[in-house]
Structures are given as C-alpha cells and as structure tokens.
Amino acid sequence: MPNDGLDDRVQLQAAIDAAQAGTGCLELGPGTFHATRKPTAGVASIPSLRISSSLVFRGAGQGVTTLAMLGPSVNTADWWLLDVAGATDVTITGLTLDGSQRTNTGEQTHLLQLIGPTQHVVVEHVTFNLPAIGPSTGGDCIRLLGTATDWVRDTTIRDTLGVDCDRSFVGLQRGVDGLVIERSESVKVGDQAIDFEPTGGEAFNCQPVIKNVLMRALTLRRATTQGLAVTIHGAGCAVAQNVTLTDSIVEDGTLSILDAADVTLSRLHLRSLPGDSEAAVVARKRVVNLRILDSVIDRPAEAGPGASIRVGNQSGAYPQDVLVSGVRVEQATPGPLVATGGLKRLVIVNTQLVYTGPPVNNFAVLVCGDATQPAEQPVLIDTTIQGALAGAVQMCGQFTGPPVLVRVTGP
Fold first, then answer.
1. Cα distance between residue 286 and residue 257, in whole Å
2. Of 130, 138, 80, which is closest to residue 104 (Cα–Cα)?
3. pLDDT band at 270, cuts 50/70/90?
C-alpha cells in the first residue's frame, strides 16, 4: 500500500518474484512505496529488492510512482535499493528512485545496481535522488559492476534524470561491455557525473576492463566550482576501450581520459569553471587514438592560468596519438591552448585556436618530449590561430624535428 510511510519491502519482493515466475511484468500505481534495508548482515542482505530474471518493472511515471529507501541501515552497512543480478531482458521504467529518507548507511549505498552476469537491461524514464546525508553515507545513483568472467553487457540508460547523487550519476566499476547512455541529465553530483572508476584491473590480464560505451545527447552538471565532470578511465594496462561521448554539454568540470584507447569526443560544448586550474580536457598515461572532433572548448579568464587541452605521461606510462579536428578553442587565460608532455603524435586539423587575453609570451601549442618517448613532429593543417601570442608552436625537451604547418594562419 503506497503513501502510508510503512515498509513495503517484503510485499514488493514477493510481487517481483511472482511476476518473474508468471507474466514477466510488474506495474506499480501512483504513490510512494517504501523499502527498508534487510535487517541482517552479509552481501545477500545489501539489496532491498532484487530482479534476477526477465521482467518489465513499470511505474506510472517519474514523480508519480516513487520507490524510496526508508530508515537506517545495519551498523552503517552498504545498501542498494534495487539490484539487477544474473538477469537477461529487464526493463525498469516510469519511476522515481529516492534515497532521501535513508539514515546511517555505508559508503556503497546505491539506488540502482547492475551486477554481472547481466545483459539486455533498459533503464528509461527514471528519476534518481540520492542526496548526501552526512559523511560517507551514500554512493552512486546508478552503478554497474561486473567481473572478468561475469560481465554487465548491453545496457541502455535513456531519458533519465539525476537530481542529486551523493557520488556519481552513473558509475562504471568494471566488467562493463556495451553501454548506451542517452538523452539524460545530471543536476547535482558530489563526484563525477559519469565516472569510470575501475578497480581490480589485474584480473583482466591487460584486456579492456570497460569497453564499447556510447554516451550521447547528455547535459551534465555537477553544481560545483571545480573538479572532474566525466572520467573515461581504465585500470593500468586494462584500458577502457571504444568509448564515445557525443552531442553533449558538460557545463562544469573537466573531462578526463586515462588509460583509454579509441576514445572519440565529438560535437561537445565544454567550459572551464572560475578558479579551476585544470584543463577542460585532460588525457594521461596509456592514451591511444584519442579524437577530439567538431567541439567548442571555452576557458574564460576567471579559470586562471592553464591550457584548454592538456595531454601528458604519468607514472612511466605514455600517451600515443591525439587528433584535434574541427574544434574551436576560446581561451582568455595565459598559457598554451594545447599543451602536451610525453605525447608521441599530435595532429591538429581545421581548428581555430583563439586567445582573447592580454599579450603573453607563450605559443598556441606546446609540444614536449623526453628521452623515453621523444615527440614526433606535430602536424597542423588548415588551422587558424588568433590573439596576442608569441607564435604557433613551441617545441621543448626531446623531439624528432620541427612542426609541420600546412595552411596555418596566425602569429
């Protein structure tokens, strides 16, 4: 019975079990249904509700049907409101998942968790609300967690809204293959809006830990002044592979790429925040085939000194190749607009590098190599450089030769 403020966990799980064994569809009417955490310890008690086989779980609409956490955890234990584990062909739709009434929970407290082996899960028209309540009492609104043997495969998250997420809107832990996130929005997060946070990479034996991810038509906000907004990260040699973020707006925070191969960033609008010394795009370590295409990157004067795009080696791992094409970089802060350290190959094509600040001694592009990986000759083609800069390209450290400039205009 909704709206009575009483625990519905046992009855809801019974309804889920009956629907999975029968029609394969469970519909909840309007109102708020509550679920407490199971009162016992152990991993099996963490989820209030579990979907374990094919099911359509449908509410009457976002803000109409709410599934809400209720009350405290056990000894500050972790808690998942809804868990999909070992299931194929699951749809969750027309709901609000709410954690604002929880108390005394642990660090791994999530509204929706997908655990491998799971495949063909669709989450659509769902609103998430998991506000921070005290220190270390919450986690992600959505979390995907597989292993090297039990993957979370072929997941679609679309038309969703993260109103307030204690940590991340969508967190990808590891063992994720085939994910689409589209037409979705985050309003406030305590960490990253989209967070690749792989752990246990050694179990993947230098094979991709997360792969085949498409994110499109997103509006990502963090409601904070600085930090990382999107992280596309692997775990050492167990890289994140074949990841695309396109047709999206990242309103606050940095887009970070680390230990990742075949990453495409296209048709994006990125803006650095006041007081944020980090670049709008940062790529580090094992970066192979990073493409930044047809995007606008804005770094206003309030952001402080620093580059708009920065690529570098770290901890003995070196990036290989970056293509910047069809991009307009507008920067008012002193410093190169594009800066690389330890990057093997940089190509910039059909790009506008626009500096709008006062005269500076730095160049538009800074390319540095070292003895471990000398920088190859950077190539700039059909590129316009504007502003009171010292020149187009500056080389430093170890490199193979001077830059190659083809139809480049500017200082």
1. 9
2. 138
3. very high
The closest of 304, 306, 308, 223 to 265, measured between CA atoms, is 308
Q: Which helix (H) or strand (E) holds 13?
A: helix 9-21
Chain-centroid distance, C-alpha 174: 13
> 116 exposed, middle or buried (CB, 10 Å; 0-12, 13-18, 19+)?
buried
pLDDT per residue over 156-198, tens digit each? 999 999 999 999 999 999 999 999 999 999 999 999 999 999 9
What is the CA 33 to chain-centroid distance, rounded? 30
* H helices, E strands: number in the chain: 1, 33
Among the ranges given (36-45, 193-202, 243-252), the one the predictor scored with the smallest mean pLDDT: 36-45
Spatial neighbors of 380 by CB under 8 A, at least 6 apart, are: 347, 348, 349, 351, 365, 392, 393, 403, 404, 405, 406, 408
> What is the Cα–Cα distance from 44 to 40, expressed in whole angstroms?
9
DSSP string, 57-107: EE-S-TTTEEEEE-EE-SSS--EEEEEEES-EEEEEEEEEEE-TTEES--S
What the block records as the tokens of 353 is 């590098």
**Contact by Cβ (8 Å): 122, 95:** no
Sketch the domain layout of the chain as residue ranges.
9-338
**363: its two tokens:** 């160049």
Question: pLDDT tier at 54 (50, 70, 90 boundaries)?
Answer: very high
Structure-token pair, residue 365: 């592009």
Token pair in block for residue 22: 């029968």
Paired with 145 in beta bridges are 115, 174
Q: Which fold has domain 9-338?
A: Pectate Lyase C-like (2.160.20)
Distance CA 326, CA 293 (A): 6
